[in-house]
Amino acid sequence: MSGAVRKGEFALIADVFAPLAARPEALGLLDDAGEFAALPGHDVVVTTDTLVAGVHFFAADPPGQIARKALRVNLSDLAAMGAVPRFYLLTLALPEDRGDDWLKDFATGLANDQKEFSVHLLGGDTVTTPGPLSLTITALGDVRVGAALRRSGAREGDSVYVSGTIGDAALGLATLRDGGSGLDDTRKIDDAAAKALRRRYYLPEPRTLLGPRLLGLASAAIDVSDGLAADLGHICTASGLGATVDPGGVPLSAPARSVLDAQPGLLELVLGGGDDYELLFTADPENAGAVERAGRDCGVDVTRIGAMTAGPGVTFLAADGSVMPLPRPGYVHF
Amino acid sequence: MSGAVRKGEFALIADVFAPLAARPEALGLLDDAGEFAALPGHDVVVTTDTLVAGVHFFAADPPGQIARKALRVNLSDLAAMGAVPRFYLLTLALPEDRGDDWLKDFATGLANDQKEFSVHLLGGDTVTTPGPLSLTITALGDVRVGAALRRSGAREGDSVYVSGTIGDAALGLATLRDGGSGLDDTRKIDDAAAKALRRRYYLPEPRTLLGPRLLGLASAAIDVSDGLAADLGHICTASGLGATVDPGGVPLSAPARSVLDAQPGLLELVLGGGDDYELLFTADPENAGAVERAGRDCGVDVTRIGAMTAGPGVTFLAADGSVMPLPRPGYVHF
Q: What was the ipTM of the complex prediction?
């Protein structure tokens, strides 16, 4: 850990982050870099994402929650490749007004998720910024050589699956925004539902068990960060195919279902919004039973929502044969 | 590459960064992560640094120069571990006012340095920020298992060496700052010298050849980013020793020498300032010949500036026996 930090802060940073970096590969955060051995027969998979206050989270959000979300969105990227997460690096650009307590709570959040996901801090950098708080996490994982899931592997006729439920985070975020969402009035969502939905926005559940479990089963995979429609579009483009999805078959949580029952127009936000961090993947119909078992073994529902077609593009085709216009793409950032 | 970017910018980002990611390991920047195989018998070494406009560089600096500096400070960290650089990831938080030309020039700078240092873009993330431009680079390299240079390996009696020249960047930065540096008046530095010194601040020369060449020769190493005094202090602390350095033996460039001849008081800035990105390392005196050859083979001077002692701490001891007070630590960021 080094960088332009407030005088005297080196000691605190070392104090709060050192316990997160207890693995020998982190070299006690005392050196210029971390060092680790790749597992035999495995490739290293590496991904990085930046989150900025006022763009990806609210500046006043609890620091532990900010930390965990930043880590989790990166773990979700590894899961989409079928990689098992092992390490992460963290860079933190801190405004002057973030005090010691903030930093401690931030580290506590990371400590919780390190246990939950069996990952370890390998290194990082802390700097001050005159701008908003921002943080970058780089996550490293392992996958068997040649086995990684790609966006490009889907075949015509493959089933399209999604894990968990879709739309909660986008609906939750919408309830947090000032004014309307440009869609139906999300302020009508009742408090209990809003709270449950927001929780999914604040703290995604990366499918770190399911992703590696899909190696050899899924033909293509991505995590839903830009929105179901956009991310399925990424698989279609990479695979040179199209996809047809029944919007009525997209799995919804109970709160999301209650919201859509009252305001059906919000379906567009569910299908187009982002931040779900569920796995969206394709698989040969022959693998249907194995896919279902994989989900059950990992404690997460997997739902078939459509099929890959000659394409191009994503089509939302209702059971009654009507075609729904494509939702606007995600990025419902505030 | 993904994230909250301006509408329609995905295409441009793909266009400008895709040529930097031509290696198969980057998966065409089309997937959620990059994937690579560690070299047999080697560990993976990974480091990350964030640079913020107004803290680590000037917002109006040429974009290619910002890009190259960000990459180079990370390559310098790998060099300090003795690792050969292979890949990097880039996250870019862009203010709205940065246009397409800025992004293209930024990518051109990276393309130049990719060739110069044989590294390749493996992945990244681009987001918008309401704050200053900031960027994070994570660099990955290889080092033979068990051979990495550490800060903690110095032994009493080892010689202390530094590559290249020290203080140019700190003097160059001082000439860029409004008002005095709190030391002698750096505005008296003549234009030609100032230009040469600033160049070292803008564009460090990471010692990517020398670092790996020192494996088996150096007992400890670090790169000089916080300042010679502070970074030697890091080696001392990690090794549980002290060090004595002859300030008159610290290698200076011709422009720095001319500045110090006119204003000897600036020696404190030379020894305490940072951003040199030279290698500071220790070696058994028996290795003196081999260390000299290593420098020659890599086209960079290596100069013995002192020796490791029982300590503790760093002492600047002049040839006439006088002890110079420790310079204030680095971080002469503006």
A: 0.90
- Across the interface, whether the CB atoms of A81 and B43 are under 8 A apart is answered no
Specify which residues A48 forms β-bridges with: A138
The interface residues of chain B toward chain A in range 86-145, judged by CB-CB distance below 8 A, are 87, 89-93, 122-125, 127-132, 134, 136, 138, 140-141, 143, 145
Q: Which residue of A has its CA nearest to B93?
A: A50
DSSP state of A329: P
Name the minimum distance, in Å, from the CA of A42 to any CA of chain B: 7
pLDDT in tens, A14-46: 788 888 988 888 887 778 789 999 999 999 999
Residue B28's closest chain A neighbor by CA? A238
* Tens digits of residue pLDDT in A234-282: 999 999 999 999 999 999 999 999 999 988 889 999 999 889 999 999 9
Separation of first and last alpha carbons in chain A: 32
| Whether residue A232 is found in the same domain as residue A290 | yes
Within 10 A of B43 (CB to CB), how many other CB atoms are there? 23
Instruction: Quote the tokens at residue B182.
Output: 């709190």
Closest approach of A320 to chain B, Cα-based (Å): 33
Question: Domain range holding B121?
Answer: 9-144
Is B129 in contact with A55 (Cβ distance < 8 A)? yes
Q: How far apart are CA A254 and CA A247, in angstroms?
A: 16
Q: Which of A97, A119, A144 is the last residue of a domain?
A: A144
With contact defined as beta carbons under 8 Å apart, do A278 and A253 qualify? no
Facing residues of B144 across strands?
A: B42
CATH number at residue A255: 3.90.650.10
